[in-house]
Structure formats: C-alpha cells, structure tokens
Write a structure and sequence with these properties.
Elements (H helix, E strand, L loop, with lengths): L41 H8 L7 H14 L11 H17 L2 H16 L16 H4 L2 H14 L8 H21 L9 H16 L8 H22 L17 H17 L7 H14 L24 H9 L4 H14 L6 H7 L16 E3 L5 E5 L7 E6 L15 E6 L2 E4 L17 E2 L20 E7 L5 E6 L15 E10 L6 E10 L7 E7 L4 E2 L5 E5 L2 E7 L4 E3 L24 E7 L5 E9 L5 E7 L2 E8 L3 E6 L7 E6 L3 E6 L8 E9 L2 E8 L3 E2 L3 E6 L4 E3 L38 H14 L6
Parallel strand pairs: 20-22
Antiparallel strand pairs: 1-2, 2-3, 3-4, 4-5, 6-11, 7-8, 8-9, 9-10, 10-17, 11-16, 12-13, 13-14, 14-17, 15-16, 18-19, 19-20, 21-24, 22-26, 23-24, 23-25, 26-27
Helix pairs in contact: 1-3, 2-3, 2-4, 2-14, 3-4, 3-6, 4-6, 6-7, 6-8, 7-8, 8-9, 8-10, 10-12, 11-12, 12-13, 12-14
Length: 772
Amino acid sequence: MRVASAVAVTVVAIVTSVVTSGTASATPPEPSGKHPRMLLDPDLRAAWKSQIDAGGPVTGAIKLCNDARTGTDHDDGQYMGFEWAKTLSACLVAWAATDKLEHQATALRFFRALLDDEHYIGDHKGGDDAAKRDSGYAIRTRGPYTALAYDWLHDAPGMTPELRQHARERWATWLNWYAANGYRARTAGSNYEAGYLIAATFVAIAQGGEASEQAGPALWKLVSDELWGKDLAGALATNGVLDGGDWPEGWQYGPLAVAEYSLAARVARQHGIAVEGVAPWLASVLRRYIYALTPGDGLWAGGDAEIDHAYLAPNVLTLDAVALGDATPDDKKWAKGEMARLKLDTDMLLYDALASVGERAVYVPRSTWPTLYRTTATGALFARTRWDEHAIWFVSECTRTIDVDHRHPDAGNFALSRGRDDLVVDPTPYGSMSTLTGNAPTVSSAQLPGPYQPSQAFWSEKTHWAWATQTRGGVVAARCDYADAYKFQDRKSDIGEALRDFVLLPNTDGTDATLVILDRAATGDAAHGMFLRFRIPAELALDKTGTATATIGSSRLAIHGESEPKLGKPTNTDCFKDGIDRGKCDAARFPVTDYRVELAGPHPRAVHVIAATGAKAPEATKLSGDGWSGLHITNPRDAVVVWPGKPATGDFTYRAPKGAAVTHVVLDGPGRDGTAGVTAKPDGDGCAITVTAGGSFSSVPTIVTIDQACAVTADLDAPNAGSAIGSKPPAAMHSNNANRRSGCCEAGSASSAPLALICMALVLRRRRRAIA
C-alpha cells in the first residue's frame, strides 16, 4: 500500500531527444516491500560479523562510531557534510556487524544532521537548501547515505513514520532542484553527475512504494530509463566517455566518483535495471590504475591536481570500486591484492567494508601482463619496459575535446620516468587553460583570439592518435595528430598539419632508454610558429652543443635538439594573476626548469632526443640523404629512426650504418594499406634499405631489425592490455547533455571569444573545491 506524502511533489526529468540503436527495455517494477532493500543481506552481515576484531574496515567503522557517540570531533560536517556522511555510513556498518542499539542511535543522529543541518549538528541551517550548495555538489553527501540509513533502519525505534516522511520530502526537494538546476546533471563522466546518480538511485529504491503516487514512480522511471538507460549506457558503451577506464576530469576527481558508479550499478542491477558493460568498465578502471602508476607508485592525474609534486598518491576508493562492484572474480582479487601491496585505506569505511567481502586478495600478475595500455575515450597512452621499480615509464595523451571540466588543452603532452626518478614531469597548475604549462607542443593559430594564443583550443573533434604501438623488442612508437586542436567554436582549424611523433628506444634490459620526439606543423604564415616545452624537476645545465643535462636521483637526463634552446623557470604558480593571458601562461605548481624552443612558421620542424640513462652518456648522430632525414642512436640501444621530407608515395630508400642488431623505425614510409616490404643490401660500411608499399611488415610505422649482413627481421607488435578487458556494448548512438552549461562557456556560443575564455576560467575556479 502506497503512503501518500503530505506535500505534493513532482520529479522534474530533463530529457532530450535521442536516437537509439534498438528498442528501449521496459522500466522494471518500482522497488517495494520489506526493508532493507539495498546490500544488507544475511551473507553480508555474517561476513562483517566475522571481521569485528580483524583490524580492517569493520573494526575501523566500529571505532569511528564509538568516537562519534562519545565525543564531538565529528559534529562539524566539514566540507559539504562529508564528515557526517562518513560517520553515518560507518555507524551503519558498525550496527550491521554488532546489532548494538548504540550504533543505531548514533547513525540516526547523523541521519538527522544531514537532513536538517548545515555546518554543525543542531544548527538547523541546512534543510531544503543544504544539497544546493556549490551548484548541487552536496547532494552526493546528503542523498545516498540518508537513503541507505532510511533503508537499513526503516523499522528501528527512532525511525518514526514522521521522520521517514520528513526524509522523503527533503529528498524530493533536493532531487527536483538538482534535475532542473544542478551542475552537469546529465553529463556522465562528471563527478557532480556521479553524486547525483547515486543519490537518485538510492533514494528511488529506499522510498519505493512509500512516496506519493506521482513522485515515487516518476523518480524510479527517471533513474531507470534516463540516468542508467541512456546516460550511463552511452558512457559505458564502446567509444563512450568511460571507455578505457579513465576518469575524464582527472583522478583528483575520479576515486569517489567511480566508487559511486560501481556501488550504484550493483544496487540498480539487484532491482532489475540492466546495465551493460559494467564488468568490462571495471576491468579497464583497474588496468588504467595499474598502468598509470609510475615505478615509484605515483599516479598520473590526467587533469587538474592541487598537489605540490608531480603525481597523485594512489587512492583506495578506485580499487574499492572494482572489488565491491560487478567485476569479474579475477579483477576483484587483483584489486584487493593491489590494496594490500600499497597498504591503502580510507575514511570512507562503507566502501572499504563492502570491498572486504568475498574473493581473497591476490597480487596483480604484472609479469604476465602486456606493458602497453591505451584508454579509448581520453587517449592516454601508458608504456613501460618492465614491471618493477627499475622500469622506464612513459605516458602521453592525445584526444579530442571532452565535455567535462578540469581538462587542459594539451594534446601531445607526455611524462617520462626512469625507475623512481621522475625526469620529465607535468607541473600544470589547477585550472590551466594553457598548453605551455605542460609538455605538449603548440603552434600559433591566426584565427584564435589573442587571449588563447599560442595555446591549443577547446573545441577539437578530430585530435587523435594516428597510430600507437609497442613491439616485442620493446620499441614504443606513436603519432599524435592535433591539427584540429585549433578549431575555434564552429570554425574549422586553420592549421594544415600538426603532428608529434614519439619513438621510445629502450636498452635490452629496459632500464635505460632514448626518447625521440619529432614535431612538425604547417601554420600558413612565418609569423605563426611552434612552441615547445620540456619541464624538468631539477636544474638543467646547457652546454655549447645545445645539450641540456641534469642528474636526478641515480639517473642522467640529457636533451638534445637541432634548434637553439633556452632554459627558463616559471615565476608563477597559477594562471590567475592579473596580467596573465590564459593561453600564454607557463606557471608551474612546483619548481621546474624548462627547456624551451620557439620556431618560426610556416613549416616549423623540430627533432629532440631525450636520453634517460645511468652513468653512460647518450650517443646520437644525424643522418640524411636525398629527401630524407634521420638519427643513428648507439646508446642505450643501437637504433635508426628515419623519415622522408614528405610522406612517401613510392619506394623509399635510405642508407644507415651496419650493426649486430640495429632497430630501424621508418616514419611516413609507403604502404597506405597498412603493410610494407623492406629489403636491405650491403653498401660499403652500411646498408641500403628500401621500403615499398605492400608486404609482410607493418607500415604505420615500419619497425624492423637489420643485422650485420643486412638481413631484415620484423619486430612484431606486442599485445596490449586492452585485449584482456572483454566485450562492451556497441557504440552508443545517442547523447544526452541536456544540462550542459550554455552561454559564454559553451563551445559554439555566440559570445565574444575573450568573454568565453574569462567565463571558462571562472567556472573552473568555482569548481575548485569539489575534490572527490
């Protein structure tokens, strides 16, 4: 029997027209019946009871709840009520494990605080407006945990019918407001949307059959058909914004968001909402996490970060998401093994406690995994030479603009580590809209307004990896095509070509490497040149040959190029000081030295060799011939990298020195069908090599080994980690960004360009405190 609320409420569902690839499934029945409905079954309670004295998250939850009952340290809600949400959820775990009424009573105290208070328990300053703060960010603390308490304590002595009705009315106000006004309510991959999704899902299930006859079914239909059936279905599908396991806003904002998605998906499935692609997504979340760890276990953020060093600390909530969610048994075990290896814990004890149940921890079998991983949606490429603390580790990103916050215009950005020594780093400060704050290349576009210059812009639809591979011999080669990064609103890019090629050449045991970077562009005008930065967390010394060197830990870094470089140090730590054009900002959030090169247009070209070695100095010699250029590198690997002056359409011939086993990497050789033929013959003290279209070798690029007798052997592609993830739903044919911000901050807006830039800066700064 449905209990009508005393207040008439409606759920505002913002729905845009969509085109789907199939017929939508029917909405499952609204949850009803006996409580608890979410998570708390006899098996979970039994598992938690067995952990009371184990010293893990259940023990921690009991201690936290006892502290909250006997003291006042948790009476301050802290940021957006997070302290109350943590305490309430811990007390729910403590009560479920012990059956003690004191934990139940403490949970109800914090339940009421989240419903009614703002900063301090009993201040009565929260209420209907509490979840609206910071454009609705607080709904993630107010909504899901009060709904879980309502469900688990539904029939507890203190959970009176009046209190339950009060909670339902409060939820209706919060959710109605957020659906109409909350920030990015329908933008999957946003931490705001993740908080809204788990709140709406938990509330719909908790109050099912008990809210008003209009509000209950309407909310359930919104949750099932729209938030899960369209928004998350599209995000989890092939080429969706979550494809590949990255968090598009960067991992300062990812851990809680992916834990919320995973937990909400598990609960939604148990109530009939079919969510395809969760297991492959969680598999990719785990892999992105593992591959994004440096040999020193720092985590590549991939977006805004507010730390005074290069890498984030690993966060257990990301691993909790895998271990507590609908992942495969192996992925669950490995996630728990990684928690144990890194000795991670958190104060969000509900997630830890849920993750502790079930499969035993098993260390990730890293030695059997490939050493290359690429995320689909965000274009992050991770490569390493080995699976220990002595590895060479490399990351780069190249992707179109993604409609989320906290991303930077930095296609072609990269970082490089040798073991625990971080050699090339990204010190980009929070809220940067400049390419010059990282290590990405950029050129000056004639059509971008002055405040954007000389950075990449924010409207690209085509920036992508043209190719990326790692061979069985350990060579990593990749090309970022970022010419479309100079698209301005609806106007196509005026840059005819903008390419960055990477060739990573490790030594035999993978402890040293040389990184060759080839930058090329066609800007259309001599006044529109290229700007390059390599940012180093140490002092660089520049010799007469133009080689810059630094010693970092036990590593020797050397950077050499043909152009005349300059060394510099940024003087600002953010890009928001008066007088700084956002596109020109080169601030750093921690001290670095810059290796800087500026080249005139209209056809700027640059080749740089970055060597990451021990004591022995790198050795590289320039090669050239009729219509081609290249490098011969003899330390730490004997290798030749060559390229024609323009992409070859016919046979391509070059000459290179002989060696016992020389790696040859040919960029832009012939072979439009993806294959090439390679022959070599002795030519004095070298080999004459001819590359033809069609044959048994890959042509994008062509990578082979040529021995002392000029015999050619293919260096075949190695497997990449994406093959282990499994199938995902087909590419979504719909998009739902109905609540995307309009006006000056929307791409394609009619607003003037400088105003658009200023507005984006204000939005980024306004989101600064949303740190989940």
